[in-house]
Amino acid sequence: MSFKFSKKELIFPLLVFITLMVVAVILWNKTLKTQKTLLKNEIQTSGLLRSQEFYTSIENNIKALENLKQRIEMTNGGYFKYWEEDAQLILDQNPSFKFVEWIDSSMVISKITPLKGNEAVVGLDISKLYRAEEWREHSQNSKTNITAWVNLTQGGNAFLVDVPVYFDEKLQGTITAGMDFTNPFNHLASDLDVYAVEIRDENGTIFYAHNNPRPSKFHEDYKYATSFLVDSLDQQKWTFSLMPKHIDMLADRKETMFIAFVFGMLLSIVSSSLIYFYRASRTENKRYKESILKLRELNRDLKKEQLKAQKANRAKTEFVSNMSHEIRTPLNAILGFIEVLKASNIQSSLKEYLALMDISSKKLLLLVDDILEIDKIESGKSTFKNISFSPSKEIANIISIYKPSIEQKGLYLQLDAPDSGICGIGDMGKFGQIITNLLRNALKFTDKGGIHLAYHEKVLENNLLVNLVIKDSGIGIPKNKIKTIFDRFTQVDSGITKKHEGSGLGLYITYNLVKLMGGHIEAESLRNNGTEFQVSLQFPLADYKQNAFKVIDIASEKEADLVGVSVLIVDDNKINVIVLKKALETMGIKAHWVSDGEQAVAEVQKNAYDLVFMDIHMPVMDGLQATKIIRKTNKDIVIMGFSADVTRETIEIALEAGMNDYFTKPISMDKLRQHLSNYLLNVKVS
C-alpha cells in the first residue's frame, strides 16, 4: 500500500520547519553582519598600524641624510672631507637610496656617490631645471625638501630629497639623495598575504603597490586610507591605502557559514520530517486497519466476480460448442449430399452448379473454423502437440494438395526446398495451418504470374531452424496498410466494392500461431508488385529422419473390401444419417440407425456391430454417457465420435469417455474411406 501525504498532518511539521528555518536565516544574517563588522575593524586596525610603519620607514631613511648634515654643520665644514665615506655608508645601510650627491650654493652638482652610472649629472646646473625654485625656497628656510616622483636625468625614477647645509652663517649647499622606497616597503609588506597596499605621491602617482591593489572595486567600508605629511613647507602629503587582496574577502568565511546554514536547513528538514512521520504513522496505522477491512470485503467481492467470470467462460464455451454443432450439422448434410451427387450420374449442366455449391459450402466451413480457432487463441486454450515430423516433407505434402487448384487458376507454383527429411518436434497440424493460410492468401490475391515458396533449414545446437519465404506476383499491399495486415477482420481491399472475398481472419490466425510457436513473421510488399511473407520457426531436433512423407494408405496395400462390415449410426439428425448411410453404402457397408444414446446401448447389447458412429449432442441420453455404459461390457468395439462440436474440451471429454477417435462434421468421402479402412480392415482380416 503506497504512503500518502496528509495535508492535515503536514501543518504542524511545516510550522516547525518554517520556525527552524527562520531561526537559521536570522542566525545566518547575524553571523554575516558580524563577520562583515569584524572584517571592517580588521582592515582599519591593520591599515592604521601598517601606515605608521611605512611612515616611520620614510622618516628613518630621510634621517640618515639629516644626520650627515648635522655632522658637517657642527664641524663648520670640517667633516666634509669624509663626504665620500659617509655617502657610501648611507648607501650600504639604506637600500632605499639610489645615490647621494652634493649641490653647492651655486646650484651645481659637484659630487655624487656612486659616480659610476651617474657621470651625466656631475657639473649639472639645476637652476635651469623645473625644480630650481623649490630648491631655493627650501634652502632659504633650511627645510628638507622632497620632490614628487620624477624622471632622473641619468635614467629611472626616484624622489629627490634635499637637505640644506649651513655653516659660517651662510648656505653652503644641499645634501641631495635619489630615493626609491620599494625595498623597505616590500620588507614591511612581506607578511600581508591577504591585503593589498597602494601609496601615491601628492600628484596621485602610484609609486608603490603590493598584491595588485584595486581600490575602485571596494566599498569605502572595506578600505583604509590615510595621508601623512612628508614636506611641511609645501604641505606635501602622500596617500596610503590598504584593502583586501581579493574582491570577496568574505568568500572563505561565507563558505564556512553556508555549510553551517545548510546543516541547519537539513536539521530543520529532518526534525520536521520526524515529527510528520511520527504523527502520520499514527494516522496510517488507523488507515491501515481500515484498509485491511476493506481489502477483506474486496476479496469477497473478487471471489464472487471470479465465480461470475468462470460461469461466463463456461457459458461462452457452451455457446461456441452449440453454435459449432448447430452450424456444422446442416453443413455436414449439404457437403454430404454434394459428395453423393458428385459420385452419381447427373447431367453435365448440373455438375457446374454442384461444383459451385461445393466451393461455397467449403468456404463457409473455413469461416467457421477460423472463428473457432480465434476463440481458442484469444481465450488461451490453444494446445500444441509435440510429435516428430519433417517440415520439408509437410510442405511438399501441402504443395501437392494445392498445386492443382493453383494451376487451374492459370498460375504457376514453384517450390524451392531440400528433400532432407530432417525431423523436428512440434505441432505438425499448426505448422501446416500456417503454410496453408499463407498459400490461400497468395492464391486469393494473385490473378497472373504465380507463387514461389522457398524453404531453408539449418541444424544448430540440437535445434532445427526453419526459414520460409512465400512470394506471390499479386496485387500487393499499400504502404499505409502493411502494418495492419495481421490485425483481425482487416483486408487490403475493404468496403462494399472489394473484389476479393474473405473474412480477414487468416493472417491474424497465422500471426498468432507463429507467435505462440515462438517464431517470427513479417511481410514486405509493393502495390501491384506482389507480397512476400517471411516466417522463422525453431523446433527441437528429433533423433531420426523421415524417408517418406506420404501417408501409407492401408487400403492401398490390402484390398479395401469393406463389404459385410456392420456399422451402427447414433444420431438424432435424420438428414445427417441419410448422408452418412448413403456414403457407407457406396463402400458396401451395411448401416443401422438409432436416434439417441439409450437406444444405442440396447442395440450394441443385442447385435454384434464392428463400429459405432456416436454423435455427442442427443436427446434422452447423449453420446458421452452412452459410450461410458457400452465400455463397461464391451472393450473391443470401435466407437468413433462423429459430431459438429469441434471444441477442444468436448474432444478431450469424448476420448476420456472411451471413444477410439473423434471426427468432426463435415468429413469428406476420401477421409472417411481412409479412416474406416484403417480401423475396419483389421476386423476383416481377422
From TrEMBL:
Boundaries of every Histidine kinase domain copy: 322-541
Lineage top rank: taxon: Bacteria
Keyword Transmembrane included in the entry's annotation: yes
Record-linked Pfam families: HATPase_c (PF02518), HisKA (PF00512), Response_reg (PF00072)
Keywords: Coiled coil, Membrane, Phosphoprotein, Transmembrane, Transmembrane helix, Two-component regulatory system
Its EC number(s): 2.7.13.3
SUPFAM superfamilies membership: ATPase domain of HSP90 chaperone/DNA topoisomerase II/histidine kinase, CheY-like, Homodimeric domain of signal transducing histidine kinase
Species: Sediminicola arcticus
Modified-residue entries (4-aspartylphosphate), positions: D615
InterPro entries listed in its UniProt record: CHASE_dom, CheY-like_superfamily, HATPase_C_sf, HATPase_dom, His_kinase_dom, HisK_dim/P_dom, HisK_dim/P_sf, Sig_transdc_His_kin-like_C
Catalytically driven reaction(s): ATP + protein L-histidine = ADP + protein N-phospho-L-histidine
Name the UniProt record assigns to this protein: histidine kinase
Coiled-coil segments: 285-315
Organism classification: Bacteria, Pseudomonadati, Bacteroidota, Flavobacteriia, Flavobacteriales
